[in-house]
Amino acid sequence: MVEALVTRLVPDATRWAPIWRSSLPSATTATNSWPWLFVSGLLLGASFTLFYYFNEYSAVSRTLSAAVDSGSSTSVHAGEGKPHRVVVDLSGKCDLLNGEWIPNPFAAAYTNSCRFIANTQNCITNGRSNTSYTNWRWKPQDCDVPLFDPDKFLSAMRNKVWALVGDSIFRNFAESFICILSKPEEPVEVYHDERYEFKVWRFPSYNFTVSLIWSRFVSKAEMYNHDISEMHSVFLLHTDVLDAKWADQYSTFDYVVVGGGGHWYLRNSTFFYLEKNTIVSCHYCDTRSFPEMGVDAVYRKMLNSVFRFVAGSAHKPVVIFATWSPDHYENGEWNTRGTCNRATPYRRGEYDGKEVGRAMRRIELEEFERAALLGQGSARLKLFDIYRLMVLRPDAQPDRYWGGAQQVGRRKRQWPVYDCLHWCLPGAVDAWSDLIMELVLNE
Q: Could you list the residue ranges that cross the membrane (predicted)?
């Protein structure tokens, strides 16, 4: 019924084909795959990576002006009012996420030869000769953070199951995390979906499992492609229903690290927003049948659904909520010749990111604090405010070294496309593991 309604409201909808996600995995789905299937899967995964790589964040560095211009009463004006700040004492000693990057005299935790790194994040393989971005470590203002100890971590996590839930930023982190953990023991990949977006690794000696669950909105969403060559998409987004890929498995997890997937909410696409399986509003929908809803209001609804789900579940894992991961495009955006070729980190206080990043992070902090005040933190919900450390690292993103910078865009662009959103590996994102280990083992 919903699909029929959307087909009626949007021109040429009969040309769409829904892109359905694969079903939940069984533990043995991928273990017996033939080599040719593996190779074809890699090629298919690579093609989809290139297809979505920049299009998925087509509006990543825009302000929330679309919501403001729409006249929505719920629009965020990022520059107005006092910044809303939540101070969270993670270690009992100091705020681990308030500090700066200092020179690191030690080698990186792993090398770019780690086989778990996707080509798009392997900046050295893609020609980056200046590797100084690997020679920094995160130093909190009032304490220190030990470097990640994979032996200690795996021993502590024996018989545990972790889930990393989010978009390609979390895929970026998962590759870093697995590379570090593979030092004591190589994990076995026991599952992957056909696009290699959803993966499960197991460390046999420790009976420790890590699942990467690619969930671009965290909530339930269906995508329709109108003209794949132009990358125009239509989304049906359920603000009150979480993505089953992770929600249906929640009771099996001991630890969940989840990101809001906020970059996808800023996508320059048509959205129909559903509650109780009924369309209640839309965005860029070019119809008067439904009211326009601002990005901020929709993002709040999703976050509220996540926190209510965590609080209401009888299962109580440790849930670590990661905030916004900033981009560092300068002199333009990804599609207007933007670059990020700085050679060193910013100093603390030197740069606080873009207006849209600050606005989206503020929403995350406000909703997290609201959940805590309502007692929803009883599910061992923890804030992992990565924004403050990652906003200082313009030097650590791939820029031209993502492996496809010379690809001409599908809309006849004649200039290279650079990546200033994801992170080179090894690199700055490795610090997430240092901080998560401190957060988890010293809780």
A: none
Domain residues for the domain of 136 are 2-19+26-441
For 267-303, letters b (16+ CB in 10 Å) and e give bbbbbbbbeeeebebbbebeeeebebbbbbbbbbbbb
> Quick one: DSSP state of residue 17?
E
- Quote the tokens at residue 41: 């899967």
CA angle 101, 106, 112 (to 5 degrees): 90
Q: Which of 180, 111, 92, 155 is nearest to 432 (CA)?
A: 180
State yes or no: is 422 an active-site residue: yes
Q: Which of 168, 211, 269, 281 is catalytic?
A: 168
How far apart, in Å, do the first and last CA atoms of the chain sit?
48
Q: Please write the tens of the pLDDT for every residue from 362-381.
A: 999 999 999 888 775 556 89
- Band of residue 105 on the pLDDT scale cut at 50, 70, 90: confident
Q: Specify the pLDDT at position 17.
A: 40
Indicate which residue of 419, 430, 433, 434 is catalytic. Answer: 419
Q: What is the pLDDT of residues 245-287, one digit of tens each?
A: 999 999 999 999 999 778 999 988 899 999 999 999 999 887 7
Residues with Cβ within 8 Å of residue 26, at least 6 apart in sequence = 191
419 labelled catalytic = yes
Look-up: residue for tokens 């982190």? 173
Separation between Cα atoms, residue 377 and residue 430, nearest integer Å: 27
Residue of 385, 422, 433, 434 with catalytic role: 422
Record the pTM.
0.82
How many residues in the chain? Answer: 443
Kindly give the interhelix angle for 168-181 and 431-441, rounded to the nearest 10 degrees: 80
DSSP string covering 203-236: EGGGTEEEEEEE-SSSEEEEEEEEETTTTEEEEE
Is 168 assigned a catalytic role? yes
